[in-house]
Amino acid sequence: MTREQKDNLFVLVKSLSKSEKRQFKLYVGRLGVNEDSKFLTLFNIMDKLSVYDETAILKKGIVKKQQLSNLKAHLYKQILISLRLNPSHQNIRIQIREQLDFATILYHKGLYKQSLKILDKAKNLAIANEEKNVAYEIVELEKVIESQYITRSISNRADELTIQAKELSLQNVLASKLSNLSLQLYGLFLKTGYVKNDTEHQIITKYFNNRLPKYDINKLGFREKLWLYKSYLWYSFLTVDFLSCYKYASKWVDLFYENQDMIVLNPVFFLRGNHYLLEALFYLRQYEKFKSTLTRLEDVTKEKWFPLDDNNESLAFLYVYNNKFNLHFIEGSFKEGLPLIDELLKQLKNYNDRIDEHHVMVFYYKIASMYFGAGDTKKCIVFLDKIISNKSLQMREDLLCFSRILNLVAHYEAGLDYNLDVLIKSTYKFLIKMEDLYEVQKEIIRFLRGLGDIYPHEVKGAFIALHKKLKTFENDPYQKRPFLYLDIISWLESKIDNQPIAQVIRNKFLKTQEKK
Questions:
Q1: How many CB atoms lie within 10 A of CB 148?
Q2: What was the pLDDT predicted at 178?
Q3: For a surface tag, which of 74, 106, 121, 199 has the fewest beta carbons within 10 Å of its beta carbon?
Q4: Cα 227 to chain center, whole Å?
Q5: Residue 328: pLDDT above 70?
Q6: Within a 10 A sphere around the Cβ of 151, how many other Cβ atoms?
Q7: Closest alpha carbon to 451 in 470, 441, 466
Q8: What's the distance, CA 265 to chain centroid?
Q9: Does the structure show a pLDDT above 50 at 201?
Q10: Tens digits of residue pLDDT in 98-132
Q11: How many angstroms separate the CA atoms of 378 and 413, rounded?
C-alpha cells in the first residue's frame, strides 16, 4: 500500500471549509496587500491540487525552490491567524486569552486601572469555566500591576491576591499530578497492555497507589474530578476490571451532563468519556445501557449548541460508528448490520484527512467481523487482507493477531483449502513471534498446528476438544480479553451444533435478555 506524501501546509489548506477559504481571502484583502501576492498565489495553487506536488508548484514560477519553504511558512501563519479570527473557532478559552492580551497591552502603556478592570473580568470568566491555569496567570499579572499602581480603595488587596494565587496554585498542582498519573497509566497501557497475572496486577496497583495524590472529593472542582476519574478509568482498564471501568466512565460522563457548559468548552473529553463508557458496557454486554448511551450521545452531537468543528466532527463519527458496529455484535444481528458497511465506507472517504490509518484498519476488522457473522466469508477475507497486507503501518499486535486468526477461520469456512497449509504455517510463524501470548492464543496455535493432520471424520471431535479447553478461560479475568476480539467460542459451538454463527450469538443474546 503506497502512502501519499503528506505536507502540513497542504493538509491544512485541504482541511478548510468553503466559508473558511472565503474568510481567508477576505482577511488577505483587509491586509491591503496586492491580490497577486505570492502567498495568496501559493494558496490558490495548493487549493486546486488533489495531492501535494512540489514539482507542480515550482513550475508555476512564483518562487525558486530555495524560497519555497519560507513562503509556505508565511502562508501557514496567515491561515492560522485568519482561522483565529473566524467566529466558528471562537470559544471561552480564546476569549479569555484575548482579554489577557488586551490587558497586557494596556499595562505596557501605563494604563494600569483599565488593565486591572479587564483582568478582573477575565479572571472571573476563567474561574467560572475551570480555566484555572490562565486564571493563575491573570492573578500573577494583577500582582505585578498592583505593586506599581498605588490605590487606597481596597486596603486588603495584597492579601486577597496572595490567597487567591495560593488557592489556584494548589488546585493547579493537584490537577497536574492527576493528569500526569492519567497520562502515565495510558502510556503503560500502550506499552504493556492488560495485566496477565496476579504479579502484574500487584505491580500496577502499587504504581497507581504510590502516584495517586491525596484529595478531598468534596473540595475538587470540575477539572480535578475529570482527571481523577480518568486516572481510575485507566487503572481499571489495565487491571481488566470492566465493572470499575463502567463506574468511572459513568462518573466522567455524568460530570459533563451535570455541567453542560463544559461540554461546549471541552467537547473532546466529553466524546472520549462516552466512548470509554460504551466500551465498558460492550465488554460487560449491558445491552440496554449500551443502546441508551449510544442514542444519547448521537442526540447530543446533533444539537445546534454542540461545537462540531473538524476535529470534534471526526471524533463523533469515529466513536458513534465504532459503537454502531458493536451494537450489532451484541445482538448477533450481522445481516441487519450489512447496510452500515456501505454507509461507513462512504463516510470514511469524507474523513480521509482526519481519520488516522490505524483507526481505518480497526474499522476494516469490524467490517470483516460483520461479513463473517453474516456468512459472507469471501468479503470478510477481502477486508482482513487490507489489514494483513498493510506493511506501512505499525498497528497494535492484538489487531494483527486476531486479523490473521479470523482470516484463517474464514478461509476454512469458505472452503478455500487449496492453500490452507501455507496459511496455517504463516499464521503460526506470526503468532509465535508475539510476546506474552494469552493461553487462549497458545491453545489456538496448538489447534492450528494439528489441523492439517486431522481426518474429516475427526474434525468435529477436534472442535469439541478445543471448545472444552477454551471454555475454562472464558471467565478468567486475565485470559478473557481475546474473546472480546474474536468470539471463537461461538464459532466452535456453531461448528459443533451445525448452526450459523449469527444464530448461536443471537440465541445467547436472547437468553440474557429473557433473564432480565
A1: 9
A2: 94
A3: 199
A4: 16
A5: yes
A6: 11
A7: 466
A8: 18
A9: yes
A10: 899 999 999 888 888 899 999 999 999 999 888 99
A11: 9
- d(CA 47, CA 49) in angstroms, rounded, equals 6
Determine the 3-state secondary structure of 477 from DSSP. Answer: coil
The candidate with the shortest Cα–Cα distance to 88, out of 18, 39, 192, is 18
Contact 492, 466 (CB under 8 A): yes
**Phi and psi angles of residue 305, each rounded to the nearest 5 degrees, phi first:** -80, -15
pLDDT in tens, 367-411: 999 999 999 999 999 999 999 888 766 656 777 888 888 888 888
**Complete DSSP assignment for 21-43:** HHHHHHHHHHTT--TT-HHHHHH
Torsion of Cα atoms, 275 then 280 then 286 then 287, to 10°: 30
Out of 9-18, 290-299, 359-368, least confident range: 9-18
Q: What is the pLDDT of residue 435?
A: 66
Nearest to 96 by CA among 145, 134, 146: 134
How much is the pTM?
Answer: 0.81
Provide the grid cell at 394.
Answer: 505499525
Where do we find the cell 470559544?
91
Question: Which pairs with CB-CB distance under 8 Å and at least 24 residues apart come from 205-211?
Answer: 205/235, 205/239, 208/181, 208/235, 211/177, 211/180, 211/181, 211/184
* Percent of the chain predicted with pLDDT > 70: 93
Q: When comparing pLDDT for 340 and 93, which is higher?
A: 340
- Is 185:193 a contact under the CB 8 Å cutoff? no
> Distance from CA of residue 360 to its chain's centroid?
12
- Separation of alpha carbons 76 and 111, rounded Å: 34
DSSP 194: S
Question: In degrees rounded to 5, what are phi and psi of residue 486?
Answer: -140, 115
Q: Which amino acid is at 317?
A: F
The percentage of residues in the chain with a pLDDT greater than 90, rounded to a whole number, is: 43
Report the C-alpha gap between 362 and 387 in whole angstroms: 9
